[in-house]
Protein 1
Amino acid sequence: MYEVYVAARFEAAHRLIGDFGPAARTHGHTYRLEVIVRGESLKDDGTLFDIGEFRGAVEDLASSLHYRDLDEVSGLTGANTTAENVARFCWESLAPDLGGRNLDSLAVRVWENPDVYAAREDPLG
Amino acid sequence: MYEVYVAARFEAAHRLIGDFGPAARTHGHTYRLEVIVRGESLKDDGTLFDIGEFRGAVEDLASSLHYRDLDEVSGLTGANTTAENVARFCWESLAPDLGGRNLDSLAVRVWENPDVYAAREDPLG
Amino acid sequence: MYEVYVAARFEAAHRLIGDFGPAARTHGHTYRLEVIVRGESLKDDGTLFDIGEFRGAVEDLASSLHYRDLDEVSGLTGANTTAENVARFCWESLAPDLGGRNLDSLAVRVWENPDVYAAREDPLG
């Protein structure tokens, strides 16, 4: 099995609703977004998935969240912007363009800081 | 599948018994402790497992090992304090409080330095 | 399940053949090589696999690629030196000596820079 990983960053504000102590105050993070695709075999050119194209898609997603209030981002409003839900949102944003490309699964990790992340990993349809 | 990760550090002494070259001398490391829980679904508040509570449990474990001789820590005496056994000890220390919380598995990585770790990962009962 | 991880670095040149934009120019990276072995149980001495021996094998592999043009390395010539193919080459270089040691699988990650890696992971025979 092969995998390819790319990372990007974005800086954004958010706050949690509920019994989350100081996380209920509006604050923010320098988020690190790590994205991994997996598949069984390489193409004739020696790639699982072109890293340049992959990196472009992940950078575009990070840019769309940069210097934003996550609680106002379409697709995140109405849900608590926990790292888990941000990971789910990023997973759902990236997955549609990754189908039909000989990839088996997609993992997205959203780091709030160097000591904390949440991730979603699921098979690609 | 979702996962949540938290990390902490502790500085401790140890030595190995057996044919381990310089590792048989009393020495020490700035250990990095990485802990990951995994589960299938999020709760209504958008969390897999509250990161604040999780981080507190991992920090408490790290504090209990900080500035200690691992070879004298209850639960580690009698076993060689390899990174593998320290990972096992940390896994067994954390697992009991993680049962019945909709979590499927627990992984613990014990880094002796930025180029070496050992880990244990197993399903939660 | 237990795992042991070691990392090493090498600095090497390469270029890709095909429609890869600037990557078709001869360039290079400070590669980071991460290697993980996994197995179900520890030996009586508390190790899955002796980290000193493991680290030596990985350092030897990294040294054999250091300050080289990867496109001229035996085992890589004729294939595009994508990170995926370098990971495959490293996997195939390390796997033969890891058989019959109670290890189940081997993973090799080849980082081209801190934001990009490719990996191969497969069971050990």
Note: Helices of chain C lie at 51-65, 83-94.
Protein 2
Amino acid sequence: MEYFSNIKWRAISLTFCIVLSFPHGSSGEIPPKPTGSVTVLPPIKPNDGPQAFPDAEKENLPVFTMDYPRIQIPFEITLWVLLASFAKIGFHVYHKITVWVPESCLLISIGLIVGAIMHSVHEEPPAVLTSNVFFLYMLPPIVLDSGYFMPIRPFFENVGTVLWFAVVGTLWNSIGIGMSLFAICQIEAFGVQDINLQENLLFATIISAVDPVAVLSVFEDVSVNEQLYIVVFGECLFNDAVTVVLYNMFNFVAEMPVVEPVDVFLGVARFFVVGLGGMGFGVLFGFAAAFTTRFTANVREIEPLFIFMYSYLAYLVAELFAISSIMAIVTCALTMKYYVEENVSQRSCTTIRHVIKMLGSISETLIFFFLGVVTITTEHEWNWGYILFTLLFAFVWRGLGVLVLTQIINPFRTIPFNLKDQFGLGYGGLRGAISFALAFTLPDNIGRRQLFITATIAIIIFTVFIQGISIRPLIEFINVRRTNRNLGTINVEVHCRLMEHTIAGIEDLCGQWSHYYWKDNLLFLLPFVQSACQHMTLYSYFNTHFTVAPWSFS
Amino acid sequence: MEYFSNIKWRAISLTFCIVLSFPHGSSGEIPPKPTGSVTVLPPIKPNDGPQAFPDAEKENLPVFTMDYPRIQIPFEITLWVLLASFAKIGFHVYHKITVWVPESCLLISIGLIVGAIMHSVHEEPPAVLTSNVFFLYMLPPIVLDSGYFMPIRPFFENVGTVLWFAVVGTLWNSIGIGMSLFAICQIEAFGVQDINLQENLLFATIISAVDPVAVLSVFEDVSVNEQLYIVVFGECLFNDAVTVVLYNMFNFVAEMPVVEPVDVFLGVARFFVVGLGGMGFGVLFGFAAAFTTRFTANVREIEPLFIFMYSYLAYLVAELFAISSIMAIVTCALTMKYYVEENVSQRSCTTIRHVIKMLGSISETLIFFFLGVVTITTEHEWNWGYILFTLLFAFVWRGLGVLVLTQIINPFRTIPFNLKDQFGLGYGGLRGAISFALAFTLPDNIGRRQLFITATIAIIIFTVFIQGISIRPLIEFINVRRTNRNLGTINVEVHCRLMEHTIAGIEDLCGQWSHYYWKDNLLFLLPFVQSACQHMTLYSYFNTHFTVAPWSFS
């Protein structure tokens, strides 16, 4: 098939060039001009159309017309998505590349190239990462994907560790990096003395949050043990609450010369509002989705819509109240998944999973792609000292934080983290597009805003490329405990579930309650959220649980 | 389960009221104000939040904040979609209603109620049907749904009749209704003497096009024979080419006092450009989609995306060049369906079909819903004479047209249409939202624009309600030939396909070629558009063809 493989490459390159040529003449987000007509232009001199009797004075019915501004927005969105999809196909043609270089790096590289092309023709890229588009349209699918396919049992078994790292770890990183950078700022040689403590803390908050998009794209290929995976993964989803509060707080405080104790107290109160509020909305909408799907037996074709609408509503309502939207949507997905998959038809279930994966995948692709594009097209302000020390401190404080926090949490864990696991935890803390978008939303009154943006990009590129590429060989080299990726057989699943119910029953008898009891007894909610015709038959059990292999979606 | 059924109703009503209360304070399409911050408001006096030490002079860190404009657009879109989905669920709870009253009527009724509520609180509804939103976002999913699930064999067996009715029938209706209305305008008593011939023809073009959305929603419930269904269905998809050309032409000509012969010639030329151009783009993008899916073996999760992207691109490119976008997207779907379903994974195939059905369903629901809403909220200009004669002429000319055209086409048909079929053809010509949207895009220089809008709404409401509700009992009363809806068994399918191949072979030998020959020989394209690993095994044959039951999607 060599002949076809050549044709294939030529076709792909040709299409690539064609679609690259389209965005010329566009200018980002322009609301469509209401033209007032469907398919009719105001009569124009048909300069390029055929005319039977060319007559310079009289206008004839135009045969060929063109109206680009009308379709500009959906057209450009479609082209960008197609371009990103072609890039994904292209990577997987040479499978050996993606074994060693994470897809995120490849996408950023393609983005850099496209950004260079756009910059050279003085074209502005669409404002995707630098506006609400990122937080309202691009981030929710990825987080929904993470939350919906989160392996539930390992998550709840490690929930304490996850929250410990998410909350305390992020605080540690933010304050540590912020203070160290402030100390560096005092050194005259670097020329950044105008950055005060609050601004440093604000910047440190932005870059200390581990990013779910980046982590996912790397850790999916590296088969570490579940404990490690779930802690890093859970941490990057749940640190959003802390990031939101700290960002608010330092932003607010950056404009005030004096910080009062009451503000610290209010900050702590706000943390609980943000965290618990996010979870609360998530659970609320999750149960609403479960309840609604009780009644969708006659409208099977729109069943998947409810899942997407409710989870998106949870996200938006959380954004409305400025609480943690990531936690809201993750909690919503976790809550509704079980009940919804019992209620909807098999086809809807397949569709829901596939669409969530599809949207998450394409969002992630676009985010890394545009990260590359805006790296070139943004105005940079480079400062060697500040940026190099940012990289250093981010690395050092992450490592220290993991060491210290693991020492404290290990006695409480069933499976303690050894040093190799801790290396994986620390080294796997990648930064990504959330940091970049947050940097871009810094208020304009911060003097060194451009420097912060440049430093954020630097740390993202560094972690994604250097850490992202090297983590796989390093993990294999130091021989971190790996996962056993075999799908559970039916027997294993049945027996595991049998044991869980037995343990729950025994706990009931003894009066000693652990998480098995609570899991079993949340089933009391089932009549409210499950349609009468669906019940836990052996068939539906197999359908739901056997096919939910923890790590694979194929 | 009486208790739960009560709870269910209370819950549904409560949710209905909650979601109805949300759009207050909104104002249609406002581009999001770039607030410049993610989750932080400019510090406001937290009037409604808790404060530890209330101090009127100093601002403290706000604990509760709200930022609605930022999320307004996605939030309102989500709520409207949810509301429409709840309405759909509600209808199917009382299954007996939907047996006799088509869903379209119920949705318009709900829309009328919501429109009345919005009007009473002086709220503007979102500009959904009255702007590009309809043609760029709401219509494509429905037409893709129609095209993708179009029964191919019956369609190609009747393609001549379909095009005959679509082209000549629409011409007949437009010119007939236009002339008659112009004659009516001459009567002084009606007070519409200012409407000239071109404006009447323009208006007649708008209302003579049979609407796929309305027809589908009615004919799906009424099980008429395939011939009848496919002709009405095909007609309403393919008359778009004629509508586009006539609309352009009369719009252009409405501003010119003199119509030259060259313009008529250009009009005919334009018709071919529009029709063949639409088909050409459709076929091009269809093959592009088929070609692309050859290479998606490693990126299964984004396979469905290509189908949607390519068909949407076909639609947009056709809109760009002001040619028939409906024909483009239908042809694209028809072309790519076979090849794509061979190339993609089973899961992707299920997802594609379900998502297309889902998007089409929700679009259709929203369209009828908003049709009801804008009926109340639009400014009307009523004229008894003009509107009543519009209804009369639309009905009469449709009936006459069907009679005359059937007489001419029947000798060429294998299964001629009897009088009962002709009744079904004529009576099933419903108008819908496309007419409304076209009416709204009439240029402002037409003096009686409001009257035209009102008359269009009147004819839509009349056909959808009166004809839509009565067609089922009438069809049963006069005993139109019904369809045999049993799914073909495997044996039937295998033998049918065997016969087709045999006939194609015999034709090859005899030298007499009919459509069997061409169908068989388009398989020469297969190596280019089919991945090497997929070939026509018995398994894949059953997978594809057996599950494509002509009428059902369950």
Note: The first helix of chain B runs from residue 2 to 21.
Protein 3
Amino acid sequence: MEIVITAVGPDNIGLADPIIHYVTGQGANIAEIQMYDHDEAAVFAMLLRIHLQVDSIDPLRGTVEQLGRAKGLSVRVWSPEPTGRTARLAICTTYRPEPALSLLRAIRDRQVPAEAVVMLGNRDRCRGLAEQFNVPWHSVGNPLGIPDEEEIVRVLDEYRVDYVILARYMRVLPATTCWKFAGGRIINLHHGLLPSFPGIRPYHEAYASRMLTYGATCHFIVPELDAGNQIIYQSTFTVPPGMKLEDITRLGQEDNEPHCLVEGVRRVVQREVLLHFHRVVATPPS
Amino acid sequence: MEIVITAVGPDNIGLADPIIHYVTGQGANIAEIQMYDHDEAAVFAMLLRIHLQVDSIDPLRGTVEQLGRAKGLSVRVWSPEPTGRTARLAICTTYRPEPALSLLRAIRDRQVPAEAVVMLGNRDRCRGLAEQFNVPWHSVGNPLGIPDEEEIVRVLDEYRVDYVILARYMRVLPATTCWKFAGGRIINLHHGLLPSFPGIRPYHEAYASRMLTYGATCHFIVPELDAGNQIIYQSTFTVPPGMKLEDITRLGQEDNEPHCLVEGVRRVVQREVLLHFHRVVATPPS
Amino acid sequence: MEIVITAVGPDNIGLADPIIHYVTGQGANIAEIQMYDHDEAAVFAMLLRIHLQVDSIDPLRGTVEQLGRAKGLSVRVWSPEPTGRTARLAICTTYRPEPALSLLRAIRDRQVPAEAVVMLGNRDRCRGLAEQFNVPWHSVGNPLGIPDEEEIVRVLDEYRVDYVILARYMRVLPATTCWKFAGGRIINLHHGLLPSFPGIRPYHEAYASRMLTYGATCHFIVPELDAGNQIIYQSTFTVPPGMKLEDITRLGQEDNEPHCLVEGVRRVVQREVLLHFHRVVATPPS
Amino acid sequence: MEIVITAVGPDNIGLADPIIHYVTGQGANIAEIQMYDHDEAAVFAMLLRIHLQVDSIDPLRGTVEQLGRAKGLSVRVWSPEPTGRTARLAICTTYRPEPALSLLRAIRDRQVPAEAVVMLGNRDRCRGLAEQFNVPWHSVGNPLGIPDEEEIVRVLDEYRVDYVILARYMRVLPATTCWKFAGGRIINLHHGLLPSFPGIRPYHEAYASRMLTYGATCHFIVPELDAGNQIIYQSTFTVPPGMKLEDITRLGQEDNEPHCLVEGVRRVVQREVLLHFHRVVATPPS
């Protein structure tokens, strides 16, 4: 069974040793290790992907969590492998409802075999959507929209979320949160074509470049500042010269972005694509 | 009648004066002037777009060409306005035949109301195509493929070409040639999405960025080194993760690029778009 | 005598004709014309650089201004040529006083042969500096620091300013103001190396790139959105690995930036460099 | 003692396990692990930085090399810690002799406490330099200048090189070679300012941008395609407008580049800077 272990700690000393010791002692084969030490930012983290001959990850999880507690590490043990259950999604939102709505419909109509187990918002704009689809809602922002990052992690843990879907969630997740759910569990919808238009106003920037093609990108978030290009799906549309920016933006927001997110999430939960050493690869035929 | 006059001269002194004097004396309204003086590169040029109440540009052309001869200027007088005739195209090629073939078919099938009056190649690969469609062919390259730039201009003048179509012509036109046919008469097919992938290997670069969207761009060439983004049409296609570069490239070359060129040329010859002060604009309703 | 005429008008029709007619009728040789028509932004402008055999530009100015009034154009006539007087500078400021202070000292100590005839600020931070050096001060910002763009132009005209010095003035001049003083009369200090770090936080961006070289750039503002690289002077400093961003920024602000501005302004007012068709060139030996 | 172990293997399976098992069993603390699996490029590698209480790395090296042989891994064990000996440098060259010459002089004059134990060239241009300074020379290029990558590694191993200095060596080291000497052992001189001008013609590119500042960058090579910005030292010079490209290039090549390389190498061999998780940091005071 493929198992992903993440650990985030207060410093670099002793971050890796106890967990690696333990799992290799259990006969695990190490498939991937990523370590991260950003002294200035005080972020120390590790991702460990292993293969272990077990039927359940629960015993391993128990022991590794115990190790974590003893060493002051925040530890998570997760397996991407299908186990008869559908993937559990958290959908994070800010203002725009269209991508979340499309995803909720696609789940309801069984086009995306997953379950929306919780919705979060740093703004309350999409709360009605959660009620409409009977999904538990958590407001995680203060009146200025600044999110409580610890509360977000707590909610994701509480609902035993497999994948975190950023459906036009307009905040940057802190590096520690990214590491806690590393290994291809955070999926973002960016409303521009990556890597060309990475900023917060990609429609404006493409328009200023006088492009006639606009697009959206569904990609994994990987927890390094400079990483990128973990693209799961991109969709585009073309416009005639002279179309106004607001019309272009509306086309993108109402049609292209929702489509892009739904197809991207579908590829992940149906395990058509994998994140492998920072690269998205097609799942090899077994 | 809208008239475009271009002049290219040996130096900056006296480049503008005689022509501007003459046409304003004839009662012309000046709509646009672009001057260019690149001392280091010894390129001195002017574009003059005027409106003049005449039924024919022939008398004006005669006088301006006389002025040009007297001053050592290379002068061209052209009108984009429909005059009952179809647009006369020169199709420039190097190796890849697909875009030129698609354009020739679209002309034959009257999807693009134009006439291919001449084909040029710095390589001979597309000569058979010209023969197949009964279009006069001119080889303009030496055995190394280096084109004879003066011969190209001579051919374009001889065939009284309205638009120069660079159908995967893999050479950069010199600035003087661009100026001689300035004003929206040179149309290029670039095999990548502009402005993101401007180089000579856009498929490779997009692939190295791990993009899942590939595209082509049909755009006007404007005669400054740094200009860009005069986009007439862009078309894209999306691929699944893991598709090999050679398969992506083949999809682009055989299907997406030809479509992009045909639609771009159609927009220009049907006067749906105009080049106006370095920007492509939709033709205003008259 | 070299004369620069700028005209900004309400639309494109008739912008160029009357002035060009008049000056060519006076026997002027046209050295450079730049026209600009940005329909979407409603900016229509022209720069005309001519040579005319006159001892004074005053008669020409009178007539051209009359033409402007008749046609609704905002017209300016200026000559860069030395006429026995020192260059008249306007120094525009926001918060940081160091570059303006250094320039005022260099003028006082006659290292820069110019006169600071007026200082402006969209914030009042540098008002004391103006008082200290007995330079008239104009506050041009509202309480939010938003400048009154028409008042700025009015002040620049009132003081018959030759050059506008943006000494860490943190606002973007509107295109119309840039056109009114086109031809190499607006000099900006950018606190980063251009073209690599064009944004508003160049120290942060270079630091994020983990560079060990930081710099400042003194350049002409040219009135097109995409223009750039009209660099008059650049100065740099290097730092050891591990130096903190605030220490780097302080080094740059207190030492490198002021030096960069003073040397840049000196080059312009001593006519060592010229703006020629959007390029900065060394003044040819006469 | 800090010890760096690198392993490069034929595939990902079993790359990490035996070595990690062994060293953690010996009581090593793991300070850093980097793993790399580029399936398409068939590059599989690991960097392991550990702390171990030993007086000599020789016993560890012996065992780990034995493990490597058994598993088909190419293994290297190295310690950056001072042990009374001077650092052993390999200087790699192509055409330009100036940087290598400056470094050899600085070593001779004891400004850089190191020993040039071998020089390599994919071209023979710098062979005379090696003879002049009595450094063994190895030609590693074929008549076209294409280097024998295996021979390079063999020579570096044979001479027990601590640091590989790329002194205007104009070839890209393959990823496998970079991994074999990972951990801050490969130092490159780039003849432009990074990250702005990364290409092979940085003088041309900066000149085309009309910059007045030119620079060189001494940096660690890290073995990922997208990594960068591991800058050890940068030095710059400024030029007046109008200076010709060939004069700028000569200034850079003859003066600025050699200075940049010498100071960069000095910082490394005197352990003023370290490579720590892909970032260059100042050595913390012990």
Note: The two ends of chain A are 14 Å apart (CA to CA).
Protein 4
Amino acid sequence: AGWSDSSQVSSPERDNETFNSGDSGQGDSRSMTPVDVPVTNPAATILPVHVYPLPQQMRVAFSAARTSNLAPGTLDQPIVFDLLLNNLGETFDLQLGRFNCPVNGTYVFIFHMLKLAVNVPLYVNLMKNEEVLVSAYANDGAPDHETASNHAILQLFQGDQIWLRLHRGAIYGSSWKYSTFSGYLLYQD
Amino acid sequence: AGWSDSSQVSSPERDNETFNSGDSGQGDSRSMTPVDVPVTNPAATILPVHVYPLPQQMRVAFSAARTSNLAPGTLDQPIVFDLLLNNLGETFDLQLGRFNCPVNGTYVFIFHMLKLAVNVPLYVNLMKNEEVLVSAYANDGAPDHETASNHAILQLFQGDQIWLRLHRGAIYGSSWKYSTFSGYLLYQD
Amino acid sequence: AGWSDSSQVSSPERDNETFNSGDSGQGDSRSMTPVDVPVTNPAATILPVHVYPLPQQMRVAFSAARTSNLAPGTLDQPIVFDLLLNNLGETFDLQLGRFNCPVNGTYVFIFHMLKLAVNVPLYVNLMKNEEVLVSAYANDGAPDHETASNHAILQLFQGDQIWLRLHRGAIYGSSWKYSTFSGYLLYQD
């Protein structure tokens, strides 16, 4: 899409026209298409100059939700998901509940997990491979729902895996999607 | 700003100097200004080469807050706002509480809503047009404040509307801005 | 990947031209390396054309956590941190708990603070210099943990300082990092 848009902007047919800034909103700022630039020498001969494209930053963003409860009853289970709101770059494995880092860079992660209305506190860990990055807790005096949530911004390397671990407790799932986990690439290295 | 910064980089006075990479940190990476590049042929004639700008990614970010309570008393009311921390791109309608998607792309949304200290649970839905994307819940054994929050990353199309629906309950507003709703464009298509 | 895709599409002349795609492939996707493009005029003289790099957007992202409790006992104390998950751009001062804005732009901030399990409510303010931007509250009928969290998207100017103020209450810290504060540059002006 970025290609076809920008190639219109940079097509040789356009080079003798005055630049139309209106076109510059159409394309993708992170890609650049070759520009054929006419060079007028004293003899007015046209010399095409080919400017080659910039490499485009990868686009990575996932957003997953649970539409059913998760109550494993054993400690330290991975939180898996059953619905994807978004999986740009196809990096998130719904069944494993794991994000597979496709390229080195700075990534943002955020999660919200609603506890079941039972008298057991909820402990959730955001994991990088087997390491606890950040954690969240939710409990209630009364057996009610409450949300455990947290976030992190991380430098990751290709092949790192980010996932949520249900240390203890049970998660409420419904079609209204109270329990969510998302992440995206902020800056590619 | 990006324009004037970059135009300094590409000013004709600079073209005979060796490239100073220190300059490349000054400007805005998402815009590119035309560069007049003198080409010295064997006869030392100056031939200008016009390199056309990259299309610039749109910049879209809003951040809204409530400074007064919202207690409609009827179900499924839109959550409107009375204060804007930011509205880059002028996409958020404060009175309607609606974000109007200006361009296809991947967007991030997040909200935090503090319930009034009353014995009614708070249910909030993040809506795309008339569809529930994700939801949040807050309640307390005691009639106290508690925050309902969630987030989503979505592929949207121009004209989509994102808004918060107060399904049930009442929201606490104050000049300290406990109840907020924000979103931004992560990747333009 | 972006590079090889584009180069296939965009270089019909690559068969007979000597262009080192390796050079453009190496760099950051948001920067551009100077390209010397040989131009053959009718007299077959080589005219080098210097295409100047795009200015690169600054990369700013921090993510901090507390691994020990914070219970100052006096109102309106800065929340300082003792662990950095990330400090891209070296903008966050751990000891002061302050983010120093290095360049004008649009920034995103988010925090999660878990209160100590004591019978004192937790009030946290996100501050810009000495101004309250947004706030968060957590309490419990029972003396239990609960998270105070909020976020904001802001237009900042170079030299602005963003920090968290513990208005009242006490924060729980542990090696599991329940209490976190992060921010990043979304769009550089």
Note: Chain C touches chain A through 56 residues (CB under 8 Å).
